[in-house]
Amino acid sequence: MSAPVHPGLNLGPVHGTAHDQAEIAVFGFWVFIMSDVITFGMVFATYATMRHALAGGPGPADLFDLTSVALQTTLLLTSSLTFGFASLAMKHRPDRSRLVVWLILTALLGLGFLGLELHDFADMAAQGATPQRSGWLSSFYALVGLHGLHVTAGLIWIGVMLWQVQAVGLTNAVKTRILRLGLYWHFLDIIWIGIFSTVFLGGVA
Amino acid sequence: MNEQTREATTQIAGYVLAAVLTATAFIAVVSGRLSSEAALITVGVAGIVQLLVHLRCFLHIDLSRQKREDLQLILFSALLLTIMIGGTVWIMGNLADHMQ
Predict the structure, then answer these.
(1) Nearest to A154 by CA among A120, A119, A121, A113
(2) Contact across the interface for A49 and B18, Cβ inside 8 Å
(3) pTM, to two decimals
């Protein structure tokens, strides 16, 4: 039995060199993800130190809409599953159509997440909870906004890959890019676990 | 069961587990039946278990030799995070206590 490889790597034993290069590229991308984790970690630490710096302004219990947060969580988690299916379609299907459909579905779920998040931001701002209101709100918008920016970057990346799949085809280079995009997308979902646990649920509990 | 079915099953299992853990965390807080402390502990434990589920089912990190380098990288980053976040919260919390 051959050793399992990253899903989506459909380079096979006849492409030994291409496979090795893909492994190196994927490991390099893991190094990037872990450095990004450190960035998020420090913004989390800032948030933790600012947690009670309300300056007489509104706090988590006044502002957070947990129904909307639960909906955002569902959208992002489901988009992780659809990306998983996109990886499987890329690995096991010779045609591109399924891969493209799963990628588009992932992007739509990501867009829905971002739309709800921006709607919540606008709602909070309308209640006077803008970033400059208190130290807590500054760190809140920095942390949740940083994650939102990452999702935006991921959506742009999905768009670029959809274009490359059509224009270039499923070459080894395009496949390993989609593989790294998958790591990035799943990683964003893991960061979101930290955000809804500590910021939203931790703030209201 | 062929490879594709097995991999799809892993994805779906991960999704169901993650959904159950997320729901547990939300219900612990929203239901209002648990004390604040008990709710926080439930959210924390569910979050850490969900992190492991995502790493295993979506990012395919396991204890096999092929994933050893990725795993070591993740564990070392986790160590750095613990030192930096823990140290920040400790020092800044201590400072806040003394400023009162």
Answers:
(1) A113
(2) no
(3) 0.90
